[in-house]
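Lab channel / #folding
Pinned by the channel admin:
"Please post every new chain as: sequence first, then the structure tokens as a reply. Keep commentary short and put observations after the output so the thread stays searchable."

First post following the new format, from NK:
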Amino acid sequence: MRNVLRRWFRHYFSDPQVLVLVLILAAGFLVVKYFGRMLVPVFTAVVLAVLMDGLIGWLKRFDVRRDILVYLVFILFLVVFADLVIIVLPLVMRQVGELFHDLPVMVAMVKRELLSLPARYPGLLTEETIHRTIALIGDEFESFAGNIIKVSVISARGAVEAVVYLVLVPFLVFFMLKDKELIAGWFSSIMPEERGLATLVWNEVYDQFFNYLRGKVLEIIFVWAINYAAFSVIGLKYSVILSLFVGIAVLVPYVGAAVMFIPVTLVAFFQWGFGSHTIWTVIAYIVLHALDGNIVAPLLLSKVVRIHPIGIITAILIFGGLWGFWGLVFAIPLATLIHSVFKAWVKSAQALQDNA
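Reply from TO:
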């Protein structure tokens, strides 16, 4: 057994480039694990800079100097950012306030409906079971209200952090775009010479990551817009925040849309009961989700996500369990990174064996 492991280790780890790649990945993991919370503005700026750098690359085909494009794209970013803060954010906050105001009414409606179930189905449900369920709902609602109070207590600190991010992130984005070559040169200067394999993996992952981000941003905007239009036409309450969360839910393939079906259906039920409007809301959600899953997402991401659905779901479970929400959001890019690393690793080992 020892000889088998020794041969396996020599086969896959004899190349110094593999060891350099492993060290770089380990260092990156440790930075995210121990300094990730402090570096959130930097990570946010990196994501935005990658998206805008792709737009700059597309505009360079018009023979415009990069420094001019950097300023133009950054001004466009500031305009869009200001519109979101000035126009969209107040709408979201207003509907969030309305939702919190209506929560007690919704809970009372649920209790009333539950208390009527034993009379409708006397052979299936008992009053004792219903009362236990109501007590459980009451406990959950009290816990939710307590969390809201905690959030309000620390809201001052959150407001300060938000202001810092609003100022800091645009600055970071600007300098990442402006000094892209300088930053890349600095990183290259501190990397080991045996970094050919790491460079190969980085180039592949960067292309995949950029294409994934671009496709997901476009998909979020599309899903948000069509769901907001449908909910507004039907007259569903909280249409802004519901459509926004439905759009954000596409970051978690397969799972996000199924999870958001529950709050959308519940809000429709609380507003209209078992009426035609609720049925139309459910139908609209299913149709729009089918449109996104079968047409929009494959069109935007067909050349990016080359992982089997089983692999995607496994990545969601693993990274979501490790890092919560952000693990769910970046499950596919992380799975792509692992896939690229293993593919390059195996090719390197095979090349060494052929040369030997």
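NK: Residues 195-356 form one domain.
TO: also worth noting, Confidence is low (pLDDT under 50) at residues 151-156.
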